[in-house]
Amino acid sequence: MRFASWRLVEELVSLSDVVLELVDSRDPLNTRSPKLEKIAMSHRKPLVIVINKADLVPRAVCEEWKEYFRNTLGYEATYISARYRKGTRIMRMTIKKVAENSRARKDRIVASIFGLPKVGKSTLVNVLKGRHSTPTSPYPGSPGYTVKARLFNIGGGVYLIDTPGILPPEGGDVEAVIRSKPVDEIPNPEKVAVDLISKVLKYNDRAFLEAYGINSRDPIEIIAELARRRGWTKGGEPNTYEASKAIIRDYLDGEIVYFYRPGTLLSHFNCSR
């Protein structure tokens, strides 16, 4: 897992007309990066929050989050499902809309895209590059320590800076823990899985019935039952270590679903700009 340095983020933001920040529709607040948002503000670059994995939650909930980011935080927002290639046309229109009053160039709009691990940045970039883009030469002025930062034409007069690296997770929520390193390197995955399950069940008490057919609300029992069903044992006992990692992976891959509405977690998350 390769994190982008904040110095790199600053340079890419400075080269952009618009900054895109991908968040996970299931937990938009804890998959945001307040530091990225402050950097965009310091460079006076408009920021668009792109709510990805919109297929996992009701459309009405995505609309509520879009309005929350617009009306409460002052950021333009849109929602997409990169996996199902939905919403990218509206995303391009949103990029053009926010760039109109801020960009100096008239011939093209350059957007940079950022996100935490597993919010879908690579999927979205590949969708845009695969269906609509043509590569240009390496981007003039791109940071010397990047690996071939390039500009791609993704249609509608919008160009995307394609660069390596993902944002380091921030905050103390379990989201930061499970996105901070590969699942196999997470210390004490059983405890992390219990915290994750408890959080999910708070908002969807059927989440693990829907994902695994396990009708329990006890995180420890859910982990043990999954191990038993998959034949993962150690010394005759359920291998909760492997089952815990599987649950974390499935969650990151969008197999475990829950959502909450704006305002639910505001008291637990620093949403200041």
Let me know the largest β-sheet: 7 strands, mixed
The CATH superfamily label of the largest domain reads: P-loop containing nucleotide triphosphate hydrolases
The percent range for helix content is 25-40%
> What overall form do the CA principal axes indicate?
elongated
Q: Could you spell the SSE succession in H and E letters?
A: HEHEHEHEHEEEHHHHEEH
Distance between the termini: 28 Å
DSSP helical segment count: 10
Q: What is the arithmetic mean of pLDDT?
A: 88
Placed side by side, the strands forming the largest sheet appear as 3-2-1-4-7-6-5
- Tell me the structural class: alpha/beta
Question: What descriptive keywords fit this protein?
Answer:
273 residues; alpha/beta; Rossmann fold; seven-stranded mixed beta sheet; two-stranded antiparallel ribbon; elongated
Would you write up a description of this structure?
There is one protein chain. This protein is an alpha/beta fold. The chain folds into two domains: 6-168, P-loop containing nucleotide triphosphate hydrolases (Rossmann fold, 3-Layer(aba) Sandwich); 174-252, Conserved Hypothetical Protein Ylqf, Chain: A, domain 2 (Orthogonal Bundle), CATH 1.10.1580. 39% of the residues lie in helices and 15% in strands. It is built from ten helices and nine strands. It has helices at residues 6-14, 34-42, 59-73, 88-99, 121-132, 174-178, 189-203, 207-212, 219-229, 240-252, and strands at 18-24, 47-52, 76-79, 109-115, 134-138, 150-153, 158-162, 233-234, 237-238. The strands form two sheets. A seven-stranded mixed β-sheet has the order 3-2-1-4-7-6-5, with helices on both faces. It has a two-stranded antiparallel sheet with strand order 8-9. Strand 2 (47-52), helix 3 and strand 3 (76-79) form a beta-alpha-beta unit. The chain starts with 5 loop residues before the first helix and ends in a 21-residue tail after the last helix.
